[in-house]
Write a structure and sequence with these properties.
The chain is globular, with a radius of gyration of 23 Å. It is built from 19 helices and 18 strands. The protein is of the alpha/beta class. It folds into 2 domains: about 5-260 and about 480-490, Rossmann fold (3-Layer(aba) Sandwich), CATH 3.40.50; about 285-475, Rossmann fold (3-Layer(aba) Sandwich). Bound molecules: adenosine-5'-diphosphate (ADP). Adenosine-5'-diphosphate (ADP) binds near residues 314 and 345.
Length: about 500
């Protein structure tokens, strides 16, 4: 079959998938995991040609393979940029990078070394949005225009509005909300610098409680809205989890669906993971014991197979109840044979409160402040229990990785975790379907009680093995979600293809 200049096959739906982070080019959280994996499965599942797009961060430009400079994009917010095409490492997906050194050659994706947002984030991501629109309408890349632009989170929130202002036929838009807590709200004074169509700063449009909001704009103008789990899709329509957007979302409720995220079951597979010291599966768990011993030794914990190793791997933020972890740490250390290993970065106060613990509880608490993909794999393989509190949780990928590695998650019954985990009760244990320990109230006391429940369950090796079996057997591959996104794309482009001329 003939290919055009970008390697596209004719008659396929063409999708531009725009994200502010794509693993392995740039990652700060679950958004990167999704953006690095989902498009691969979408491309494999249907008649879809998909191209990814992200900002030209230094890591992205360092890792992108087979780079070619396509053209100069002039007069974007923040100045001209070079559009670079390359390949995503480890896949045959093509990626477009918007290279503007003034905007993107910085150490943090969104924040400086003190955790403060870059003051020009509005301009940085408006540049991404405008560049994406030019590609989508066929003004940037020869012989390529998109049928659908898939936008992800606030960083891409201006794209639906910019495309809606474009004369028909125009590319359709899907907006996926990965986390409603990140909204892209900026002072109205930025308006003049974002090159937007006139008349957009009203309460029916960009304006959100006195600011301009990228996310609100995306929600209002996208042709289709998705979020990353069915339960979160329900929760965000209400006051408790809507974060101020519940009214806007309710107005678009009929266009909103929750599609549960998957995980990359090749990258996160204890049977073939090269980042961990020994491989294992449910029928041969000796490798997990070796991973635990190795981590205990490397992280300065007492090497003791009988100790219960609790791991905490998350952004050290209030969302992840990292403050409650600090609250309960003295109590945890009063329990015999309990160890805690933490890997995370985030709020400076939480980082500081954790930093002293390895000295206070030598051999029992280890803390690594920072971000490290390899250590994350090792920690998940080594742990007996993942302690993962969430005040709200759109999907929650880390507990899914833990399940696959037989590391029993302690989680709240909230958001996506309601769709992915089954808490241990007498009935679920009897039925062999329990794969987690739940707590309901989002408090330190409830978190501590859940730890006690998990430790008690571990005391019975048969019960624990059944929990691990159910956890490791769960299927969270991307096949089903990718097919669901493919259907959404199809639903958007079919009316255009069959409309009377
Ligand atoms: P969120 O996207 O809300 O941060 P998720 O659990 O959905 O939460 O995804 C977080 C992703 O980031 C997972 O892949 C997790 O392993 C990873 N992660 C979080 N903190 C770290 C860290 N300090 N080092 C390495 N990986 C991390």
């Amino acid at each position: 079959m003939p290919y055009d200049a970008l390697g596209n096959r004719p008659n396929r739906t063409r999708v531009l998938f725009v994200s502010s982070e794509i693993y392995p080019l740039a990652k700060s959280g679950g958004l990167a995991d999704v953006s690095g994996a989902l498009p691969r499965f979408i491309a494999a599942a249907g008649e879809i040609d998909i191209i990814l797009m992200l900002p030209g961060y230094p890591t992205a430009l360092e890792l992108l393979e087979n780079q070619v400079s396509l053209l100069r994009l002039q007069d974007l917010p923040g100045g001209d940029a070079t559009l670079i095409l390359g390949d995503l490492p480890g896949s045959d997906l093509r990626v477009l990078v918007v290279d503007n050194p003034d905007l993107f050659y910085r150490p943090g994706l969104y924040t400086d070394e003190n955790g403060l947002d870059w003051p020009d984030n509005a301009i940085r991501f408006a540049a991404l949005c405008h560049a994406a629109c030019r590609v989508a309408i066929g003004d940037a890349v020869p012989h390529w225009r998109a049928d659908v632009v898939h936008c992800n989170d606030w960083h891409t929130g201006l794209i639906p509005m910019l495309l809606a202002a474009h004369p028909c036929p125009r590319p359709k838009t899907v907006m996926t909300i990965h986390n409603l807590a990140f909204q892209g709200n900026f002072p109205g004074a930025f308006l003049d610098e974002l090159a937007l169509p006139a008349g957009q700063y009203s309460s029916e449009n960009l304006e959100f409680y006195g600011n301009l909001s990228f996310l609100k704009s995306g929600i209002l103008h996208a042709d289709s809205l998705t979020t990353v789990s069915p339960s979160y899709a329900e929760e965000i329509l209400g006051d408790e989890f809507g974060m101020g957007f519940e009214g806007v979302l309710r107005a678009r409720q009929s266009d909103l669906v929750g599609i549960l995220n998957g995980i990359d079951t090749d990258a996160w597979n204890p049977g073939q993971d090269c980042l961990i010291p020994a491989r294992y599966g449910i029928d041969h768990m000796a490798g997990k014991a070796r991973c635990k011993a190795s981590l205990q030794a490397d992280w300065g914990l007492a090497v003791d197979p009988d100790a219960t190793l609790i791991i905490f791997l998350a952004r050290l933020e209030l969302q992840k109840m990292a403050d409650c972890l600090i609250d309960i740490l003295p109590e945890l250390m009063s329990r015999p044979k309990l160890q805690l290993a933490v890997l995370g970065a985030g709020t400076p106060e939480i980082e500081a409160a954790l930093a002293d613990w390895p000295r206070r509880a030598t051999g029992r608490v280890a803390v690594h402040i920072g971000y490290d993909e390899e250590l994350a794999h090792q920690l998940i393989a080594a742990g007996d229990i993942l302690l993962h509190g969430s005040r709200f949780e759109p999907c929650g990928l880390t507990p899914l990785y833990a399940l696959r590695y037989g590391t029993i998650p302690i989680v709240n019954q909230v958001g996506g975790l309601r769709d992915t985990t089954i808490g241990a009760t007498a009935e679920t244990l009897d039925a062999g379907i329990a794969n987690a320990v739940h707590f309901v109230e989002r408090s330190s006391a409830a978190m501590l009680a859940a730890v006690d429940q998990a430790v008690a369950l571990r005391a019975d090796s048969g019960t624990w093995h059944r929990l691990q079996s159910a956890a490791m057997a769960a299927d969270f591959s991307w096949h089903k979600p990718a097919a669901a996104y493919g259907k959404i794309y199809e639903g958007l482009v079919v009316p255009r293809q069959f409309a009377p001329v």
